[in-house]
Design goal:
Mean pLDDT: 82
Distance between the termini: 37 Å
Strand order of the largest sheet: 1-7-4-3-2
Structural class: mainly beta
Largest sheet: 5 strands, mixed
Radius of gyration: 13 Å
Order of helices and strands: EEEEEEEEEE
């Protein structure tokens, strides 16, 4: 579509996986993994668990999209997409608040993490 997607995929850092954008702003990784955009204008902290008390693993740059492998309840956070206690697992041991991810839903869009 003429716009390069930045993707955080299970295989590596941004830009290592190819993506195809859809009309809803959601993209898919090559292996049919759906990714969701982070709110525009935000650099979101990725944490070791579902809350701000967990350590920061990394910070996502502007314009990122992320996969959501599973979701887990945790600390309630307010962001551009509302207030939520859901945290999205984007990689092994890496979580972002759902309040910063445009999933199109206020509830679960993936299975609950163990």
């Amino acid at each position: 579509m003429g716009v390069e997607e930045n993707i955080v995929g299970p295989a590596g850092p941004a830009g290592t996986d190819t993506a195809e954008a859809t009309a809803e702003g959601v993209a898919t990784l090559a292996a049919d993994t759906v990714v969701y955009p982070i709110a525009p204008g935000y650099r979101v902290n990725v944490r070791r668990g579902p809350g701000t008390q967990y350590g920061i693993v990394r910070t996502l740059p502007y314009g990122m999209s992320v996969p959501v492998y599973c979701q887990k309840p945790g600390e309630r956070v307010t962001g551009p997409y509302g207030t939520s206690n859901l945290w999205d697992n984007i990689a092994n041991g890496q979580f972002v608040s759902d309040a910063y991810v445009k999933t199109g839903s206020d509830g679960y869009i993936a299975t609950r993490c163990d």
